[in-house]
Design a protein that fits this description.
Blueprint: H1 2-38, E1 43-49, E2 53-55, E3 59-68, E4 80-86, E5 92-99, E6 104-110, E7 118-125, E8 138-145, E9 155-162, E10 168-174, E11 186-193, E12 196-203
Parallel strand pairs: 2-8
Antiparallel strand pairs: 1-3, 3-6, 4-5, 4-7, 7-8, 9-10, 11-12
Length: 215
């Protein structure tokens, strides 16, 4: 009887251990599901850059958008976004703290005129998102090239031409390569001569413009 009792006891222990080993994968699966569910509380970060290619001395403009990962609505968890500019050697070049209101913000990086050619990483994150994995950190690369036009004025050779009929007109030379690309192929020019004012709108491929200065 004593031997049978020991055998039964051993069987109970064996069955308990089997049930325990079978339960471990379920516990791990539950832990993984908790991690996945936690990501729903993270913030999704987007930066809309004005372009991807720049020259030294340019300004990198960007708009910041932060939304709730689960509901895709503007996040109210963070009111500051940290945006970094990092070179190819992983050295931090600039860092900005951008004010966020209703999930929206904007900012810029002024590129130094001596900045070297290469690829630069723009990285953005919130303090809240440091609680989650790197999937919720925004990263995008831009290219920077040397600007051979530094020191060249966009407007040159301004001449006031007096015609025989008594009318005057201006001749102005524009260098389109120096004009900021944010002008989107249009440039507004305001003239003031002897307290008289006039304005011109110059469009892409427009070679000649005629205007008279008016009161």
């Amino acid at each position: 009887m004593k031997q049978n009792a020991i055998t039964i006891h051993n069987k109970i222990i064996y069955m308990f251990l089997c049930m325990l080993f079978l339960a471990i994968p379920k516990i791990k699966a539950q832990e993984n599901s908790i991690k996945v569910d936690n990501s729903a509380f993270a913030e999704k970060i987007y930066l809309q850059l004005d372009r991807k290619v720049y020259t030294n001395g340019d300004t990198v403009w960007f708009k910041c958008i932060i939304i709730n990962a689960s509901e895709n609505i503007p996040s109210v968890l963070s009111n500051v976004l940290y945006v970094e500019l990092i070179n190819a050697d992983k050295k931090l070049i600039q860092k900005k703290s951008i004010k966020i209101e209703n999930g929206i913000g904007q900012g810029n990086f002024d590129l130094d005129k001596k900045i070297t050619k290469g690829n630069y990483l723009i990285r953005a994150y919130t303090r809240w998102n440091e609680n989650f994995d790197t999937d919720f950190i925004f990263e995008e690369y831009i290219q920077v090239f040397p600007n051979d036009l530094n020191g060249i004025d966009a407007i040159q050779n301004i001449k006031l031409i007096q015609e025989e009929n008594g009318n005057d007109h201006l001749e102005i030379q524009f260098n389109p390569q120096v004009i900021d690309s944010l002008q989107k192929n249009k440039l507004a020019v305001f003239l003031t001569i002897d307290d008289k004012k006039d304005s011109l709108l110059i469009k892409k491929k427009q070679r000649q413009i005629h205007s008279r200065v008016q009161n």
